[in-house]
Amino acid sequence: MNSIYSAAIILITGLLLPAGHPHIINGTKGQPSGISVFVEQDTIPVLIGKQKNPVLRINVKADGDDFPDLTGISLRTFGTTSQKDISDVAIYFSGSRSDFGDAVPLGEPAPAKPVFVIPGRQALQKGDNYFWVSLKISGEANLINRITVLCEHIELEGEVKLEPVTPVPAY
User: Is pLDDT above 50 for 6?
Assistant: First the structure.
């Protein structure tokens, strides 16, 4: 191919949704007062050779005055055809901006596992706090394989874990 990027793997959300239609998980179980978590995921292609492929947008909405820091994000990749297709997974933070454009890395990229946490500390501000999960796909990835990435929970200072109200779908 003449292109720098090759069309690669179709991301599957765990629910079969038409391309371009987000899956939104509203709210949070057992959250500290004033904090809600919204996860949005499109069914989109991710590209081999591209360093950043944002696949999940996580909005931690904080209402009130005093919030604990976010200390990590737990992810699940059950349903992925081959873990080797994912070179690494990274978290980015874009503040109150809902687009990925100027997002900055949070913590260090990690290899994908069936269930894992990417640690990183970020103070939450009142309102919307956008975090992104981005994948780097292996150059050896099989084009017919599938990748599934879901947010299990976010972790806050004081060992608080916030899970979406809607159960994470089984693949």
Answer: no
